[in-house]
Design a protein that fits this description.
259 residues; mainly alpha; 12 helices; 0% strand
Amino acid sequence: MKLLRLVGVGFSMALRRSVAFRVNLVFDVLLAFTGLGTAVAAVLIVFTRADSLAGWSRSEFLVLIGTYQLITGLRGTFIDPNLSWFPETGIRNGKLDAYLLQPASSLFLASLSLSSPLALIQLVLGVGVLGWGISAQPLSVAGVISWLVLVVAGLVVTWALSVLLACLAFWAPKLQLDVFFHSAWQLGRYPTDVFARPIRVVLTYVFPMALIASGPSAALLRGPRVGVVAGGLLAAGGAAALAGLAWRAGLRRYTGATS
């Protein structure tokens, strides 16, 4: 509860700062509409020439894009504002020193204490596209529950991958792998079925982008599969544990910003 209160206080302060700059709010809304509109338009154009793509219909693709946008919005709101700049602000500029002196988990403070409320615009738009897609699909209660479980698992994996990348800064402070991560993230907007088998294996077991949108969307539309849900939970638990271990190993190496 203490950590949730900290998240709530941080979010409230960030929201007040964001609303103070209304022009930024307008541009953020326009950018979010443009990005999502481009993705949806591409899907609609493709399905004027085909009834399905890799076994996915037009409405199923919309569900996938909506789910992807929803998770991207949550990532942009709660994860990116903290970890995207961690090598520079946390390690090189010494902000981590202040976190280590606080009476709360340094991993929590470094990875989740800041937020960017305007990024929730992407979540709202994603929910709209998701609703558009499922309006033409019969859903089951089990499918909805599985979707929720896999979305949460996808968020945990996303957070853990971001922490693992940030932890590299303990050993190589000037190494920036965000470009690769953001590029790989874009692959999550497509169903893994459209890729060749080697890439599909990588996106499922090595760099699990399949958990971001493909897995939850398939569970929602086609019903839950016990193996997929169990695999998602195991991946989330394993990734979170690995992130915690990497963070503790990094802290043992860290001796201060001026070292």
